[in-house]
Amino acid sequence: MLSPTVEEILRELHASLTLRKRPEDVARLIQDLDATQGTELDEVTEAALAAEHSLRNLWHGYTSMREDFARPVGAQRQLARAASLFTDVPELPDSAGDDPDRIEVVIRVAGESIGRVYGQNDFGVDRLDRAERTAAGLGEVSKRQYNKRFRLLRRMEAKLARLIHEQHRREVTMTGKGALAHVVPYGLFAVDPNTAAFIAYITARGYMRSVFTNGRQRQVYDEVAEALFQRLRAQPEQTCWSAVAHVHPTSEVLAAVSEEDLAQLLVRWNGFLRQVADLLEDAWNRHPLERETMIVRRGDDSSTWNQAAQAWNTARAHWFAILSELGQEKILDRVCPGKVPRLMAADVAYWHRMSGGGLHPDTYIWAELPLPWEVLRGEKDCPRSLVEAVCARHQRDPVASAWTAPRPTAEAVAFRRTPELVHGVAVADPLMASALRSAGVFSGNGKRAAAREWL
């Protein structure tokens, strides 16, 4: 039976799977968990946490960055208004404003009370006239009061659609950065404290914000994650490998997961790929991109595209890894959807060229392959042979670059403290970051130029 202190720490670690806590803060919780259990650090862990990289010496202080993914504004205000106008609608707690199912029930119940059918929102066609209102038992309700209620329900339906869309985008963003960490149930997460520690830390590393740079972003798997993973290797019987597979799908991890659990994960990732493909298609249809360069042009929805692209690539990597472990790689002979590059700002592309670089080689391959949603719907063929041929034309190894195979196992990189960022630009300290953010520095059209000065 877990002591209350261990239970409390595990609950806080599990809560971090949907937050953007710094890896240092999660590491501090892991330290507390170890101390509570009286765990002795092994030699491998001691080596990785030594000197300036030690968890014992990590600065645990103030940060100006939000510790949460942006949440959409709920429908609390609209629900309160509905409760004041419709006698059939009770007052609901604030939590109901974030629950699409409860909002829809309110709209339907309120609509029935004025003879309105859910989804009928045309103000000129779908409203009841005087005779129809009388027939529906609404003779005592004035036209003005009826219109007021009709307009409210129409706005609530529009609000519900926006809320669902923004909640989906938030989930896409979290999945792109932290895979399926946010859906790991507490019961599975807390089976083994070492498993919980590894999942929480690797997720915090994945959730780190992007830095304004013309090089590679910081890698997720660092020496602290490696040290925590060594604990799992040391006690394979106690480790909950199926939970680890939600965030770290290496061949070593997947080999320890049952085929049933792997199949469930595969189905989940397959469904998520289709959802993200729809999001990519929607952004594309609103404003087709310049595929040959993937440089942002006026009218491009770069935020939605980049969030969806990252989620697609994460889901695709997990899907490929599980297919390989299940011995089902032959599926790729028929369906081998490609990677999706992110959009790049024009000034960042210029920075690449000025520093001797250019477009990422994957951009040229992406430009020649069918679009992901066309592949998943079966509208266009994209077998492994086609991807290999395109990679060969651009002198790119399709296996090493993960176009036709799972990603290579990552090597641990050195630990570095999480920087304070303002729109991706590292600043000296949290107080300075807060001041710059309040002053609007690095925002708007001058953001990139200012960022270059600060870099």
What does this entry look like structurally?
- The radius of gyration is 26 Å and the shape is globular.
- The chain starts with a helix and ends with a helix.
- Helices cover 53% and strands 1% of the residues.
- It is built from 20 helices and two strands.
- Strand 1 (420-422) and strand 2 form a beta hairpin.
- Strands 1-2 form a two-stranded antiparallel ribbon.
- It has 455 residues and is an all-alpha fold.
- Mean pLDDT is 85; it is low at 50-60 and 445-455.
- It has helices spanning 4-15, 23-37, 43-48, 76-85, 100-113, 130-135, 143-178, 186-189, 193-206, 223-234, 241-244, 251-254, 259-286, 302-325, 346-354, 361-368, 372-376, 384-393, 430-439, 447-454, and strands spanning 420-422, 425-427.
- Derived from helix and strand composition plus strand pairing, the structural class reads mainly alpha
- Could you give the order of the helices and strands? HHHHHHHHHHHHHHHHHHEEHH
Radius of gyration: 26 Å
The major beta sheet can be summarized as: 2 strands, antiparallel
The count of DSSP E runs of length 2 or more, i.e. the number of strands, is 2
Helix fraction by DSSP (H/I, runs of at least 4): 40-55%
Number of distinct helices: 20
Low-confidence stretches: 50-60, 445-455
* Mean pLDDT across every amino acid position: 85
Strand order of the largest sheet: 1-2
How much strand? under 5%
Question: Separation of termini?
Answer: 51 Å
